[in-house]
């Protein structure tokens, strides 16, 4: 019954904004209002300031990703992203299994172990900038990236 | 096919039209010689009465994150500038096997991350509708008539290419709405197949568990033709299902009374523009007056889909972008102190801020201390979202009807005020959950807004019920009779051609 009333509210009155606020919206708003300011809505977020990204984390991430932040804005963006992701905590997932793939109820296809294609070494080597005979040339390995020495790393550090 | 125009002539017309619409910045690479050669071969086939099928001789465009043998594939990124793949993506190969003419590679957001086609290395894509007669007439009173609009998902180039009549169909990719979003803004049919129906081999991956190749065309019949060609198991892509697939023609739906349309109430958000809201309502009325059952349904976890997507997407992106190290392909910088230094410098130069930001966020969520709280949690929420849909469909609903976008295309200057992630979070709200659940969805152009810009509505179907979805979409399209784009300045040149071949509203079934 309530659903029908809500449905009618949705369908009627094209010009009246109030009529289109459904009960569901109010519920969602109420849930979100706990964590965000009353002015915002389900889509926007406000950075909670939850756990500032420390210098160690920055270094660690740059080392893992082999991509640098580049600027303080990038760090701020990461903080916002993390704050945004914190909203997941509101959801009750007790007893719920993680879903890796939507095709999880099907068997993975395995083809027979026969060589079907290959022998294209030359083509593949053509795309690389530095090759020697049949090798890709890489700089020496096993040398770690230099650690960021100061507490306030310069984001324009040259490697 | 009826001999009104030869493939070569058609190809030339499309190529010249590409030249004239260069200001849209829809194409990154135009493969003129390849296309003309293909056109000649197609002509020979027609002469000998041995055409390969419906797509023989039809010009198509492909988004630049599909690998195309011998043609530069950049993903709109400096990382892959100059990269020429040695193989064709399976979907591209399938199109070529049917004789389609590959006109070129279209522009996109860098690595398909974003919802505006504004962040690529080759510049933003312009919406052809901002140059249309319909839009200009509405804007007569404005002081700045030159304001152009973008906001075209990330397959913006493909959408602009089809919309500007430079090709008949285009391939896009859909991870969070990247095909349906630009389709809605450009007045096209944007189709996202069920996950696992179409092969992803050769599509440079963004999020392996949600990516799908998408199809953009001017009408639903064309989409069905292209889908019939592309769908099917691919031994090179183990995430394609093995169910047999046959090309199909859409049956004409005359009786919708057996249909049950669901309207998800959580999609009625305050940000939805009133025009789209009323359009949505009118569409529901349309179905109801034709006899279908229209009911309200609930997808309770909708509000979390963006957050969940955000975590899963950045995590998978962090993994997928790890292959770009400059060693085997792509950009490489001159640092040779150590391998790691070289990788780091190459990746800094090759990726733009958006990509780097996502990689770093993804790595953060995958850290040992965060894995459980963010990544696993997001996967659990994903299951809840997918289950929402399953529950709704199990309760007897056949198709869901929702808006595709919050509003019509927004001016470029306004769009870039917010950063990429915020924009994606806002714009993908209606299209995003479908990718999480792997369901098929299609955006059908519904009407022109008060400003003269296109607005679309989205239909969502059950998994692997793509044919039924397209049948309903076609019925809706026929009821709506969406107007044709009239590009000023180009109409005079092409008007004679249009009369001959009805290019304006042509379908591939000639």
Kindly describe this structure:
The complex is a heterodimer of chains A (159) and B (510). With 159 residues, chain A is mostly helical. Helix content of chain A is 32%, strand content 3%. A two-stranded antiparallel ribbon of chain A has the order 1-2. In chain A, a hairpin with a 2-residue loop joins strand 1 and strand 2. The relative contact order of chain A is 0.10. The termini of chain B are close together. With 510 residues, chain B is of the alpha/beta class. Chain B has an eleven-stranded mixed beta sheet, sandwiched between helices. Chains A and B meet through helix 1, helix 2, helix 3 and helix 4 of A and helix 8, helix 9, helix 10, helix 11 and helix 12 of B.
Task: Name some characteristics of this structure.
heterodimer; A: mainly alpha; 2 strands; 32% helix; flat; disordered C terminus; B: 510 residues; 11-stranded mixed β-sheet; 17 helices; 11 strands; EC 6.3.5.- (chain A)
